[in-house]
């Protein structure tokens, strides 16, 4: 079965086997784990404190965009591959057609190393949380009429949101699978409410 060659890269799943959990709890790539959070957290900190550090909007904008660009490159090309065994990229064929490729690490016949549970948690928490913060910044800048900051915030949403979308596609599979998963989840919630109106029982 071809599905047996694909490693299960968990988002927040706990491992039932205690011995495997002890092995997977170690951070195998501390440098990659550090830079996975460093650039994106630094961009957020600079955005929050830039008006206190300097009065130059251009200096703040350039610094934040550089940090966001470094984060996009590091997460897309390095940390995703090392920490969770996922990667995505764009490829142009000989006919000039663009193809988006989403891959998960394959296990070798000898049994390659599985992803560390600690690294997986760090990766997904950083990948999901930071774009949500930039979305909050976007609404804040919009409603407070800080138009000059809106372009910077939108850049943060786009760059970090692109990595989030790409790695979710790597984890879940094709867009059809992503849509079917969402539909199945909503269908189950609807049936549960119909069968037990006003009562929710955790699965």
From TrEMBL:
Keywords: Membrane, Transmembrane, Transmembrane helix
Gene Ontology terms: biological process: protein secretion; vesicle-mediated transport
Topology of this chain in the membrane: Multi-pass membrane protein
Predominant location category: membrane
Transmembrane segments: 30-49, 55-75, 122-143, 149-168
InterPro entries: TVP23-like
PANTHER family (alphabetical): GOLGI APPARATUS MEMBRANE PROTEIN TVP23, GOLGI APPARATUS MEMBRANE PROTEIN TVP23 HOMOLOG B
Protein name (database record): Golgi apparatus membrane protein TVP23 homolog
Gene source species: Cochlearius cochlearius
């Amino acid at each position: 079965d071809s599905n047996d060659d694909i490693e299960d890269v968990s988002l927040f799943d706990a491992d039932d086997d205690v011995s495997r959990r002890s092995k997977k709890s170690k951070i195998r790539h501390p440098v990659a784990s550090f830079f996975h959070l460093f650039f994106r957290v630094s961009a957020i900190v600079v955005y929050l404190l830039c008006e206190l550090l300097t009065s130059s909007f251009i200096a703040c904008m350039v610094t934040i965009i550089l940090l966001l660009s470094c984060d996009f490159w590091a997460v897309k090309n390095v940390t995703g591959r090392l920490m969770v065994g996922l990667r995505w990229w764009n490829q142009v064929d000989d006919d000039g057609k663009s193809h988006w490729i989403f891959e998960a690490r394959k296990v070798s016949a000898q049994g390659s190393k599985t992803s560390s549970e600690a690294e997986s948690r760090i990766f997904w928490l950083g990948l999901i949380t930071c774009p949500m913060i930039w979305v909050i910044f976007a609404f804040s800048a919009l409603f407070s009429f800080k138009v000059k900051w809106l372009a910077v915030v939108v850049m943060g949403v786009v760059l970090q949101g692109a990595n989030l979308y790409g790695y979710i596609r790597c984890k879940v599979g094709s867009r059809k699978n992503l849509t079917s998963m969402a539909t199945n989840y909503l269908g189950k919630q609807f049936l549960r409410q119909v069968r037990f109106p006003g009562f929710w029982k955790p699965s």
